[in-house]
Every structure is written in C-alpha cells, then in structure tokens.
Amino acid sequence: MSAAKSSKKLIIVESPHKAKIIQKFLGNDFIALSSIGHVRDLPKTGRGKKALGIDVDNGYAMTYETIKGKEAKIQELKKAVQMSSEIYLAPDPDREGEAIAWHLKEALELPEEKTRRITYQAVTKKAILQALENARDIDMNLVNAQQARRALDRLVGFNLSPFLWKKIAKSLSAGRVQSPAVRMVVEREKQIRAFKSQEYWSLDVSLEDEKSKEKFRAHLTHWQDKRFELGNPLAASEQSMQQVLQALDKQPFDLIKVESKESQSQPHGPFITSTLQQAANIILRFGATRTMRVAQKLYEGVEVDGVATGLITYMRTDSMMVDPSAIAEAREYISQKHGDKYLPLKPNVYSSSDKNAQEAHEAIRPVSVFLTPDKLKGILSHDEWNLYDLIWRRFIQSQMPNARFLNTTAYLTAAEGKFEAKGRTLLFNGFLALDRRGSEDGEVHGEQYLPPLAAGSPVHFLQWHPAQHFTKPPARYTEASLVKALEKEGIGRPSTYAPIIQTILERGYVIQKARAFHASELGIAVNDMLDQFFNDIVDYQFTAAMETHLDNIEEGKASFTQVLDNFYHPFKDELDSAMEKAQPLKGRAWEGPEVCPLCGSGLVVRYSKSGAFLGCSSYPECKGLLPMPGQEDETPDDEKSETAVNQEEVKCPTCGAAMMLKKSRWGKNFYSCTRYPECKMTMSADSQGKPVVLPAAPEQICDKCGKPMVVKMSRRGPFLACTGYPECKNTLSLSSTGEVEQPPVVENPGVCEKCGGEMVVKKGRSGWFLACSNYPKCKNAKPIPGEKTQKKQES
C-alpha cells in the first residue's frame, strides 16, 4: 500500500448526493462515500426467537443481520477503510444517525483508534470543517435510545400482530406509535357518526353612513338582552327568524358607541419538523412524506453558481434555537432590503413548547438568507422551490417586528336588538410585508373596512341578510392537524410523524379522501380490540411517557434494559390474557337478510385491507363474497356526489360467478371474481364503480408457452396477457377495437450496448421502442431508428 493512499481520510454519510457535495468541499485529501442508509437491522425472516432478533431472557440482546442487498456496499466500504488513515462517520445528527454510525463501525469492524463521529446542522463547507475539528466518539446513549425504540417497536409488532391475525384478519399489524394515531382518527370518526346536527339562524344587516355614504355590515348579537345564537329559541328556525324581522321592520338604527383599540400580531418562530409539515400541508398541499422527501433534498444541497452547498439546516428537529450568526445575517438582510423600521431593536427569541426538545439542534432555516428564492429559480424543481420559499420566508419573518392593527367596533340598537359592526385596519404590516398573501392599502384580507363612524352618527337601513346554519361535527383530521395532535400528545418525535401517517394509510386502517382522514371499518375493529385488551398501547399518556423514557436513555438517566423490562413483562401478561379471553371479530355470523350469492348459505363477517365484507359460512367449499351493507361506499353523506362509488351487479366473463368491487393499494377501483383464487379474473371500474367493458379480441395462443391469452386492462389501455402468468409474462398490445397491434418491423435491431443482450421491440406510453431483452436486469432502451423523424413529419 502506497503512502499516498494510506494518507486519505474517509467520510461515510447515508446519501450518495450528500457524499458528492461533501467531496467537493474537502478535495483530494478526503474520500466521501455513502452507506445508503442503514446497513444492518433486526431479522426480517425466520421463526420464533430467531425471527424476533431480541433475546428477552438475556438482557434484550439484539441480533443484527446485514440488510439484504447491502453486502456489496459493505465490501466497497471495507476496501475504502483499508486505504484510509482516518474514518469519519457522518450520518445525520439524531438518534437514527448515531445508530447508523454505530452499525457502520460494527459491520466494517472499524478500529477505535482511527474512527471518529462528526455531526453538522447544515451541509456547507464551513459546517463540515467545524465538524471535523470537533470530531468525537460515538455516543452510546444515543445509540441505546434508538435501540430501545427499535426493540419496543419490534416487541409490540412481533407479539401483537399474530393476535390480530387470529382475532380479526391476516396480515394485520399493530405498533407502539401507530396504534395511538389510529385511535385519534377512530375517536374522531365515532364523534362524527354520533353527531346530531342542529339548525340555527343568524342575522346581518347592510347599513349606510349618512355622512360618508359608505356602506358597512352589522351583526345581530342580542335580542331582548339574550344572545342571539344557537340555543336561543328565536334563532332556532325560519319561522322564529321571521318574527324577529317583523319586529325590526322599519325600526330606526341608533349608533350608540364606537370603540377603537390597537392590537398586534406576532410572527411565528422558524419552522421545526411538525410546524413545517403542517404549513406545507395547508399552503402547498404536501403530505408529510412528500414534505420530508423534498426537505431532505434541500438539506443535502445543490450547486449554485458552480459552488456546492446545502440549502437548509437539518430538517428533523423539535428545537427553536437558531445560531446567533444566522440571526445577525437575517437582521442584515432585513435592514438592507426593507429598512430599519422593519428591524426590531433586539433579535426575536423563540423557545420550544416541548420540554424534551433537543436544544443542541437548530430550527429549520436557510443556510444563508442571501440565497433568496429568486436566486434559486431554475436550479430547484417546482416542489423544492416552493418548500424552500416557505422556509426562507418563515425564517426572515421570525426576525421582523409585529404587525399592528386598529380594531374598531361600532355598537348599534334597533327595536329590541343589539348589533355590532367590526372592522380591522392594518396600521403597520411588519412581518406581513413578507407574507405570501400580501396586504393592500392598509386593509387585511377577510376584514371589513369601516367608515369613520361616531356615536350618534345617523345610519340608514339598506338590506337584511338572514342566514340559515347547521351545526357541524368535529372536523376530520388532515395530515396537518394529525401531526399537530401527535405533537401535542407527545406521541412520536420529529423523525416519526411522516412514517406514522404513511403506515396507517398503507395498513388500510385509515382512508384519505379529499385530504381528510376517515377511519375504515378495519381500523375501527383493530382499535376497539386493542383498546379493550391493550389499553396502554393506545393510551396517549402511556405512549408519551415512553417517549420520555427514551429521552432519559439518551441523556444517560435510565438504562436500556430497565426501560424494556418495565414495559415487556406487563405487556406479555396482557397478551397471554387477551389470547385466551378475546372473542374473534372475524367469522361472527351476519344477522342481516343477505345470503351467499353463490350457494345461498348464511354469511359471516370478515375483514381485509379494503375494510369489512361478508363471506360465505361454507368457506372454503364455497368462496362467495358480498360487500358489507352500508360499506360499499365509505364516503360520508355530506361528501357524496355524482362520483360516489357503488357496487354494480357484475358477472365474471370467465366463469360466470359474481364479481366484487374492491380498491387496490393505489386507490383504484376494480372488480375481482368471488371464486378467487380458482378464478383470477379482474375487471377495471370507473370512478362511479361501473365496470369498464373490455373489447372483444380474437382467440390468441401465447407464442412463448402455448397457453391461451386473455384481455386485461392497464392504465395504458387493453392488452392480451398469457394465462400462464406469472410463469409466463408474455403480453400483446391491443387497439381500442380489440385488434392485436403488430409491432413495426425492425431489420437488425442489434445488441445492447450495455450488456450485449438482444434488443427487442416493445411498446410504452409514447409508442414503440427498442429495449434490452435482459430487462429488468438491464433497463437499456432507445427509440426505433427513424421513428422520431417519421412522427414529426406526420404531425
């Protein structure tokens, strides 16, 4: 080994893109490589204790295995280690990152004397160089906190899942953090279903100031000295509203008092993970997962004017702390761009509401406020630019002064009624100067501008505005409000909000419609079962207390084994008791009039990811199925429209059995034969649940295996598929009339430049093309020679 090679220093991060950026910072003295996330984890396969991967009888010793597909990556890193004089482990600055660093150290068998851990809040040259100067050992308290979380999640999931399989349905799962989240949605669902709407009326009046001739609007607040609102008999119906209007008819209005007072609106602090996810959901319509994916790209950085840099600080944080140099830079920008009147005398300081916030971290902010969104147009993608603009504006606003308003209320009387007219005028926009909505002429959007009124000023009646209202049930959770609720209850941590939401959606416990969460029948069944027998698992306070225990491990105040012991043994006793006492929800007899559509036998209740359904009691001899009455369309009455999905009477074109409307994991409607798996026929359905009739096609025999081919539907239209699937995956394209489309004849298509395989003609969404026959191992593809030119000439 040459001296030059042995003098190289190795930095290992998780992301390949981050590795490229850091390599550009540090030059030839360093090698920056990525692990692409974790390289080891608990077992994914096996039986019993081996599959659990945790020895509960031996101090909860955890057995880790190399993650499938990471073997080559580990070998690549080992070779780099052998050629390096120093190794710096540089995953993200949190528990998960610390654990990745430790797993790398163990998997690569790194020597203590030349292995160091570095952390940084932003991917900038300055931050990386400072991190190298402050390199340290791996913090085993952080690692143990992550291991304890992983062990708790594995112990809950590994033990509870078989319980749910036995009592409800196969392939279900429960989680220490996901289950309380499901409970939130289920409880809200039950409140909405139990809600009884009440009618009530309100009354506004349009008036005109005689002096200025300006119009304004007032609201009836009291009638006969009682609040005119829900609960007042005179506000309960249209008839009683008419009584009030008759009493007010042609009665003069007296302006008895006008009050004005100033108020202020403070800017929000810079984003933390939860508030970023909430704001991105409300303003940009981003889901939590999408927000974090885009933020990760901003954190890892881009090249700006030929210089590589990260754009924001680390995006998984619950701390509101900001580096003083960043505050000074923000104040300098505000002074230059907006003037000193938009600069507070002292910097604004914010503190986290969460007492367990990791104050060693920073809030989410731009690495430099002088990297304005305008400078990054054309460099960032649409999503990246919008999220960066949101983060940049929020940070600048956090160091700007309060907005000041003049709030005016005019009090009026007429007959036995008291009216109020309220208006708000913007005196100084302060941080609102940077608000995306802006402000115009001193007015604030959504606020009424009042003319210059004074007590005794004559006003004239113009028009009544009676309005009917109905009380509404509690609002359904959106991603923004669910993240806020999880944060408020102390459930999870910044890095877990997005995975929690993604998990409960993937499991089918929660359905998202029009951006709102609805609890599925499956989610309700699972929650009720857990609530009855494992109340602590779904209890908010218990889950939040567990997060505190994990924080204590991180701070060295509690031991890994102590926390696991206190949880596991009572939990195991609960599990044993529940296995014995819990009555299965699946398989209970259906008490309705419906019978099996195939054999006429009685039906039983079953569950799947699609929700509850009815199955034949003679299963497995008869596999008849029916949708659960009332659950064919889970859309609430107040949200139904012409696009509501309903089950149609559909017969299987292959075997004649009834077909059942289902929903795929991607949310698409389709019909499946009730004789599955004997008959695997499926049929697409449109947005209203009507079957999409496939075109008739000539009988076709597969030219690869000799089996008959059948018509199927994909997102690109109808096609012929071999009935020997999945052993034979041969397909043929069909036109809309059902004719087999013949591929263009290509003389000598040649061989693949990448792997030497034969090139063949295939069809994609844009038409025919040449593709390597070794797909999916080789994904090389190219246009058919002359095809592009021909299309352009035709157009």
List the helices and strands and how they pair.
Layout: H1 3-6, E1 8-13, H2 16-26, E2 30-34, E3 40-41, H3 48-52, E4 54-55, E5 61-62, E6 65-66, H4 71-82, E7 84-89, H5 95-107, E8 115-117, H6 125-133, H7 140-167, H8 178-194, E9 199-209, E10 215-223, E11 226-227, H9 238-248, E12 254-265, H10 273-284, H11 288-300, E13 302-304, E14 307-309, H12 324-338, H13 382-398, E15 403-414, E16 417-428, E17 459-470, H14 479-489, H15 497-506, E18 510-513, E19 516-519, H16 521-533, H17 535-538, H18 540-554, H19 560-581, E20 603-608, E21 611-616, E22 625-627, E23 659-663, E24 669-673, E25 682-684, E26 709-714, E27 717-722, E28 731-733, E29 759-764, E30 767-772, E31 781-782, H20 787-794
Parallel strand pairs: 1-2, 1-7, 7-8
Antiparallel strand pairs: 3-6, 4-5, 9-10, 9-17, 10-11, 10-16, 12-15, 13-14, 15-16, 18-19, 20-21, 21-22, 23-24, 24-25, 26-27, 27-28, 29-30, 30-31
Helix pairs in contact: 5-7, 7-18, 7-19, 8-15, 8-16, 10-13, 10-14, 11-13
